[in-house]
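re: the backbone from monday

yeah here it is again, tokenized this time
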């Protein structure tokens, strides 16, 4: 039995997140339904990192076992032929039979887009956070430096099932793009649920001038979620890629 790794992109607008849930449409659900059509048997996929409702992906990675003899190109084509138009398989490669995308990931990269103009663009409303107030990019960059490295991110994580709140962020880049878009790129080994969006919310607080950059260090060290701002909207977030 072959084990395949697939690089997947999806528009998260009409999904209730990645993970299968009864009675709702999920990315995992439609991928497993497509595989069932191809294999004529139920197959469970493994994922490098789950995404919440409304979050998109450019380079999500899933892994599954194939009970039939099929090559990589044919597997990719068969999947795309059976998937809805808001999910696309970019690449399929065969991997070792014990390969697990979650545990072997060394770096995960997320992109967050902020549409920073006074008037909204209705055609971007599901793909970027419209923020009409001026943002000081340089101050946001200064604040982001306090988050790089290994820290206890309890102030930015809603703790679930006694999970560890210690995480390592390798780098945060903040760029103002030509199309009035601000890109916040966060690279780390692993992230807790809503952690990236909570960080974006705090950086925006700095960008508006309500907080000085040093405030982020203070909030981080307090290890208290109630001190951090509200979570940034899901539709601006993209699972960009994962490195093994």
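seq for it, each position gets an aa:
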């Amino acid at each position: 039995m072959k084990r395949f790794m697939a690089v997947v992109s999806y528009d998260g607008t009409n999904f209730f997140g990645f993970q299968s849930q009864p009675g709702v449409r999920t990315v995992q659900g439609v991928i497993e339904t497509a595989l069932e059509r191809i294999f004529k048997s139920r197959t469970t996929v493994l994922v490098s990192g789950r995404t919440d409702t409304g979050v998109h992906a450019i380079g999500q990675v899933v892994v599954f076992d194939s009970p039939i003899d099929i090559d990589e190109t044919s597997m990719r084509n068969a999947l795309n032929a059976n998937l809805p138009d808001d999910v696309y398989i970019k690449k399929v490669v065969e991997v070792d039979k014990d390969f697990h995308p979650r545990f072997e990931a060394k770096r995960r990269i997320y992109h967050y887009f902020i549409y920073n103009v006074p008037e909204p663009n209705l055609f971007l409303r599901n793909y970027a956070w419209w923020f009409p107030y001026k943002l000081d990019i340089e101050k946001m960059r200064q604040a982001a430096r306090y988050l790089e490295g290994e820290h206890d991110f309890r102030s930015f994580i809603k703790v679930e099932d006694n999970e560890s709140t210690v995480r390592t962020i390798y780098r945060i880049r903040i760029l103002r793009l030509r199309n009035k878009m601000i890109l916040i790129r966060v690279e780390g080994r692993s992230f807790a649920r809503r952690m990236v969006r909570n960080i974006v919310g705090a950086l925006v607080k700095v960008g508006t001038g309500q907080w000085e950059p040093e405030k982020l260090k203070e909030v981080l060290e307090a290890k208290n979620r109630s001190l951090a701002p509200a979570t940034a909207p899901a539709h601006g977030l993209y699972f960009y890629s994962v490195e093994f």
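The chain has five helices and ten strands. The two ends are 22 Å apart (CA to CA).
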